[in-house]
Amino acid sequence: MTDSISARLLRAVGGVPLAVVLATLLAAPATAQDRLRADAPDDWLIQDATVLTVTNGTIENGDILVRDGDIARVGTDLSAPSGAEVYDASGEYVMPGIIEAHQHIAISNVNEATNQVTAEVGVGDVLNPYDIGIYRALAGGVTTVHVMHGSANPIGGRNETIKLRYGVTDPQGLKMEGAPRTVKFALGENPTRVYGQGRDQQPRTRMGVEQVIREALRKAERYAEAKEAYENGERDRPPEHSERMEVLAGVLSGDVIVQCHSYRADEILMLMRVFEDFGIQDLVFHHVNEGFKVAPELAAFGDDGAGASVFSDWWAYKFEVYYSTAYNAAVLTENGVNASINTDIPGEQRDMYLQAAKTKRYGDLTDDEALALITINPARQLGIDDRVGSIEEGKDADLAIFDDHPLSVYTKPQRTYVDGVVRFDHEEDPDDMRLRVDPEGTVDLARDGYDRDRRKSCLKGVTFLQATESGLTLQHSH
Amino acid sequence: MLSASLSRRLFLLCALLLGLATALPDAATAQKEPGRQGVFALTNAQIVVSPTDTISSGTVVIRDDSIAAVGSGVAAPNDAEVIDCSGQTVYAGLIDGGTRLGIEEVGSLSETQDFNEIGEVTAHMNALTAVNPNSVHIPVTRVHGITTVITEPSNGMLPGTAALIDLHGYTPRQMHAAGVTLTKLDFPSVGRQGPSDDRSPETIEKESQKALDKLNEVWDRAERYARIDSSVTAAEGRRQPEYIPAMEGLLPVIRGEQPLMITANAASDISVALDWAEERGVLDQVILSGAMEGWRVADEIAEASVPVLVGSVMQPPSRESDRYDRAYETPSLLRDAGVTVALRSGKTENVRNLVFHAGFAASHGLGKSGALRAVTTAPAEIFGIDDLVGTVEAGKKANLFVADGDPFQPTTDVQHLFIEGYKLPLENRQTKLRDEFLNRTPGLSE
């Protein structure tokens, strides 16, 4: 490809004074809201690759025809229709764009830590399309991310499923149209620390977490009943509108999928019991480090089982993950649980293919089972598996191309397509891929590994009031 | 003499206490199967003697704590336990140049953390003192072929000494590898600390200068302390200097007897640190640690002939403007400039990922043998123990492992592990949890 987009970008970033770049960008018409790939083609023939479809096996010397951003055909010896760009992928591997079910990139706030129940808020309102993390995820073959509210509250806010259309500056342009709505729940140490330890309010214990959730769902049930009664003419007036209750009523009706932060086996069992009592079927547990202990129960939940989105090998950063095992994903999979792997922390999502590959060491999953952990399985957990998660005709052309098998530690991502548009190109992209240069904000640096580990992104934005021997201190968690 | 009933009661009490001790979810009792020394012959193995020398099929003989013989013509001794390693490869034990292994157990619980003593200048603290030989993290780490690590304190400018430890032993001193001890200097950062650092440029400069002044003041005192101490030793009758523990702790560095491990990550910090070390006459003792932005000043580091413990490798670049894979390339960019490079994971519970850090460094310029060197012979040279470890050669300490493939590939499994000749079981709490729960009984109950 000798496309001029990257060349233009190179000039813009590298050779021209900042003021000129900014002036040009500001002068751009409002319709052209893609600063990087506005004119990029979305008709492609990707040729002669090893195609890892994930759901339909592997095709050697395979071709993928992309039309209007969708996968039009998958096979061998396809020919390029006129107007389609050709990418010679011989010797390379194509897999479905990687999907991460748990991240906090591309948002400017994480936690509305003001109440035990905040289902009314949503991170979709604070999307930040300028986050360099979007590009870095693309550089690891990631194309879809479930951006989540934090875990300070037993019932947090709504999450947002986004496509990594880096370059688009309208936050709405990142949202994956038609993706089911989801809401964050959180169990265990985080909510009990924020409310019980931090504010002397319920919940302080896992008992309290259960009752906070039961009470909120019961109120939502009453709210929904009152609305229905009004609509049936059995009531004069509708209940007073509550956005919080609307979202929770959506949970009860199955319109909103609950994505629940959890670690210990007991709390996982607790939430499944609560949901059975309320007839809620759509449930995905996140982190779920002790999921391996209750894998049979997870598999048996509801009609389709509860999902589990786990870390590859993270543990011991707090007490509730001390009794963990890196074999979690494999044990869950062997027990029939739909499992995925996530990385949670901004900056860590660059190497998800390696995190999936670790299940080869920590377990005996097949290549397809390992790849499913970062493709079709998270797609199912987010309710978007009809659109993404495998290389199938009719699905979105979200594709990740590697120079070696993606489960090899030595592989390097070459190209990432989102909706048929090249959003990452190892060969052509310049070093500096920022969309916006803040002349005040500068040189960022240099965090060592320890500090990064301690960044509790799930609790970002929470301020703790801590009583110590020397008095009360405010602790702001990041 | 004790009456029969009293001694019986005492016996019962002891038994009860013993029972309690075993019933507690104690890491020590829960995880450790004993290792055993002896004579072992690893036969029909591919042997990676060193990163540049491989024997396609041969035998490694281990006797007691050492490697007794290595070669294609070596026969298994009569008294040896023979382990057929057909299709498998013997590698030297891997070394991690920077961890908190043994001195931190749970990240959020300060009760389990012993790496962070209070104070800016606590050079007399020794990480080795607080190493817990029964930390759950140790067997979790070593089953990947990682046999030896630096464990280091932090908090404050001079937080104490780091120690090189082998990942087997029942006391810290048994674990201490060849007595390697490094004084750590967390070099004061002279620049902006990141996007959230909102200090004005003037404040930053003022505070940087203050921190450097503080370091120089400490070093002046330490040199003075050493001079007085030496003269007391030389001439009888002179008054001892007032005992100052931290100054005492710095004596081996001031006297040129102990390496100084300087942690610096930002390019400007590295430059200032190298200049400082030269002015202070300690440059030839310096080992640089971290060096995230070392690639920006690679020539300066090479010029100073300072070896580097790089890492961690698998992390985003330090600046938003940097290329997405810059951190993966740092080891190779330094190596290409002529710097001796070893890797560090910078972790506690996931030191095991050192193998994947090495894999990423390999594919980003370092190459497979360069990466293997960075976790075997290079750290052995840097710590001055290349006569003891780092290769699979006769006479060296038997720190080695046998794997069914490339140790950096996730598809590979380690088959046998030896540390100081002890053949160690490849189990830990994580494998035991898998064994217990993979096919849980009872399973689903109605």
Mean pLDDT of chain A: 89
CATH uppermost class of the largest domain in chain B: Alpha Beta
Characterize the quaternary organization of these chains: heterodimer
The CATH topology of the largest domain in chain B turns out to be TIM Barrel
**What is the CATH superfamily label of the largest domain in chain A?**
Metal-dependent hydrolases
Instruction: Indicate how many domains the architecture of chain A comprises.
Output: 2
CA-based gyration radius of chain B: 24 Å
Please tally the helical runs of chain A, counting DSSP H or I stretches of 4 or more residues. 13
Briefly characterize the structure.
The complex is a heterodimer of chains A (478) and B (446). Chain A is an alpha/beta fold and 478 residues long.
Can you walk me through this structure?
- The complex is a heterodimer of chains A (478) and B (446).
- Chain A is built from 13 helices and 19 strands.
- Chain A has helices spanning 4-15, 18-27, 132-138, 189-199, 206-231, 243-253, 265-278, 295-300, 328-334, 352-361, 367-372, 376-382, 449-454; strands spanning 44-52, 58-67, 70-75, 85-88, 93-96, 98-103, 142-147, 155-158, 160-163, 181-186, 256-262, 283-287, 307-310, 339-341, 399-402, 413-418, 421-425, 463-468, 471-476.
- In chain A, the strands form 4 sheets. In chain A, strands 1, 2, 3, 4, 5, 15, 16 and 17 form an 8-stranded mixed beta sheet that branches. In chain A, strands 8-10-11-12-13-14 form a 6-stranded mixed beta sheet, sandwiched between helices.
- Chain B is of the alpha/beta class.
- Chain B is built from 13 helices and 16 strands.
- The longest helix of chain B is centred in the middle third of the chain and has 34 residues, at 201-234.
- Residues 12-31 of chain B have low confidence and may be disordered.
- The interface between A and B is large, with 60 and 66 residues.
